[in-house]
Amino acid sequence: MEATNKLHTTLLTLFGSLNEGAEDATAQNDNDATEARVATIPLDYSRSGANLEQHCRPEQLRTAAELLNTQHFLLESITGVDWPEKNQFEVLYDFIHYAVPQYRVLLRCTVSRDEAIVPSLCSIFSAADWHEREVYDLFGILFDGHPNLIRILLPEDADFYPLRKDYMP
Amino acid sequence: MANPIVHALVYLIGLMTFAGLNAAYLVWCERKGAARIQRRTGPCEVGWAGLLQPLADGLKLMTKQLLVPDGVDAALFRLAPVLAMLPGMVALAVIPFSAHLQALDMELSALFIFAFASLAMLCVLLGGWASGNKFAIISSARAVSQNLAYEIPMLLTLITIALISGSLNLREIALDQQGGLFHWNLFRLEGWHILTMWIAFIIFFICSIAETNRAPFDLAEAESELVAGYMTEYSSMGYGLFMMAEYINIVVGACLTTILFLGGWGCPFDVAPGWWWFGLKMYALIFTIIWVRWTYPRTQIYRLLNLSWKVMIPFSLINLLITAGLVKFL
Amino acid sequence: MNLPRQRYEETFVLNLGPQHPATHGVLRIKVTMDGEYVIKAEPVLGYIHRMHEKIAEQGNFAQFMPYTARMDYLHALAFNHGYCLVVERAAGIEVPERAEYIRVITVELNRIASHLLWWAAFLLDLGGFTPLLYAFDDREQILDLLERTTGSRLTYCYFRFGGVCNDIDDEFISGTRTFIDRLRKRLPVMYHSLVTGNIILIKRIKDIGIISTEQCRRYGASGPVARGSGIDFDVRKHEPYSIYPELDFDIPVYNEGDSMARYMVRMDEIEQSLRIIEQALDKLPDGPIMAKVPKNLRPEAGTCYAAVETARGSLGHRLLCNGDRNPYRLKLRSPTFSNLSLFAEVAEGMMIADVLAFLGSLDLVIPEIDR
Amino acid sequence: MSGYWRDIFAGAKSLVIGLSITGREFFRPVVTEHYPYETPTLPARFRGHIELIANEESGEPNCVVCGMCQRACPSGCIALSGEKAPSGKGKVLTSYMLDFTTCSLCGSCVESCNFNALRFSREYNRVAFDKSVFQLDLIARLKEQNQCKP
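The joint structure predicted for all components is written out below.
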């Protein structure tokens, strides 16, 4: 169990440095429309299946992913969520570690619904390639820096994004 | 049998029915054998125990429409299956089924059969290339390299047999082996041939399986990779002819192995030699070929070629050397 | 055994199309080939995509249960188990002891059936027809046992939130014990000496499609594909759920990373599953098989994740609820989706026959990829 | 070179073992069922499409048209309607249509019925040329069963 605690504390410190960096950024442009909160929330594993939830802004995504990559985490899945009432898309990244049991890091980042662009993690985790294509395919969230962002599940000529709440078949 | 025309006619009709019945009922034997190995019943609906099943298959194949897709070299496309049947049928003419049951007694009959066997390889290439299908091209390229690689050890073992029995005429080879089990080339005692002949037998048997593209060497029509190989574009009788050609080639391969190694129509204790001993040995070998097909997975193309160039050919050369030594000094 | 890269003048594109005997489903692979060698392989997905995640949002929680079995129909009970786990974790439902044991017994039986069918289909791809019939002979015993208790043979809808819907009787238990002895006697003869020891098979899958540990981590591979490359990662040990901590079994791990290693991992897993079932049958307690669960479930808002070990890897459910009767968003993380994503990188330079052997060793179920 | 010889001898031995196993299987009895003549024995909990249960004496379906099964079904295959009973108490079933083309045999309807009015039939070989044969009218089916009962 001590491996988990050691990893947990290192992650807390690393994410902490990430938060301060972002704190002063939000301080300057307070009228930031997306008012993206930057916070690190330890969770109870048995209740929610994840140990650490990190909210971050789209620009910090790549640094957080590089940080996790150095700790030999693996990207398990990317989930897109549509919050129409808050006019926001949310992208959740799940990271686990082969060697550390019962430990999952959840990276959440929200982006406004009109210009939904999120930096791509393809260069860091190759698993992100297909997962991001799927989130683009079903939500229409663009991932800049993705080698070939085309539809993966729906036919090429589909012009709708099925998993949006306002899409009714 | 006095005048040659009646002789030729009788043997022509005899051999054509022999080939046709064999091609049809070997399919039945294969499906029944495979079923028993896999502990299921096999064809048993059409006729008693499915005996009319080959008839039903033949009828189905004939009534289907022969589709010639466009973008296909039409003339070669139609010619290939007919050419594929040719070597098998012609080779049957020189096989001595018993002392006086042989269509044509030629001097170099063994060489005659091998000359036509290499023609079969060209027909597969023709069929594959003419159908213009990507899978067919890959499969015909494989078939050519496979047949070429397995022709050489077969010829080398043929030469060892020719050394022992002194001639390339199948009739002489068979006559030389008459007189009991220990006169067969496989168990030949005088001249100590028994020591090396079993290696030659195994090599020849494996090569006859590889020559007719049968599993575990069926890379040409590999179901799970190349869909149906060079037969992909063929339908109805085109496909039927290719299947019949394959089974007749198996019959010819089994006949050759019986004549060269198991003493043709000789009976083990020299009690009553006859053509039915020849048939018994031939169908035993064919059953083993079926048995082998339903036991092993398929090899890859480069392992198959390695097996021939690095194992079969060296072993048959050494075998040739030892036999030459034995014949010379003993 | 990746051969050197060929020069590219005359290459042609071959469609291992949606309709091909070796893809066991509607997976299409656009293969650019130079003669026999594959230069670039690109899987194309979506031919059996049914938008499971949108269906989950339409009906209430219980109405999505039959759909879970339609994703990976070879190991449907593990998918039932995964979905039950995430909803029970979100709603805080306690599952009685006996139901947990019944769940583990049926899931492990289903895992053996899935490995047997993989073994049969894998050998069919390699050209051996007969082993398929022997494997189906054994698999038929499992299907009959599971049909007795659950009512269906392939797409089960047997688990409910808080337990299982039917109890198992003594005939099921005695039938399972005879099945275990029968398979233990047949494994060394019909499976190992007939096939695993066969020189043709060994040459066919040894050193073919080598996946390195780093590749597995970068692509997020899991299950036998990861365990074949030396990664000791099995969700039953990594994130223990249900009663797996009380059962002792070990995880087969091979380091070569080639198709032979993945093959051996799955064959050893069959023996481990037999051990698990035996222990679970010995410790089977009495008691209720269903917990008290309200008819329409309303777990409170929040997000939750649960992972389960299926025959192909770690299946994850990311559930977001906002308090009303249907899930707000249910993400299904399927193991084969990630296992297949490393196919394009590994398949370069191989020959077409080896590419199919490598594809078979990945044990793909296409509806699970496309969801 | 040792790999070369080991391959040949170990390989040959494994090939012979393989042949002996399939050879032994060749002489073993057949395992498969000859389907049209030997029909499979169905287990008690076999799930065919659902059918109505009638109480023994009157032969009327037990269903009280509460619509629980209609709501529980994930794919919406059940369409039932009823009207006021002449005796003024409760409802009588008039039509019960099951669309078997979309039914996934999950059993939610049978479980949600508290009046023991639904069960799984034991029919497994229903084939047809067009889809309409799978729009089953369970009341008509119940009447048929009542007629052929003594």
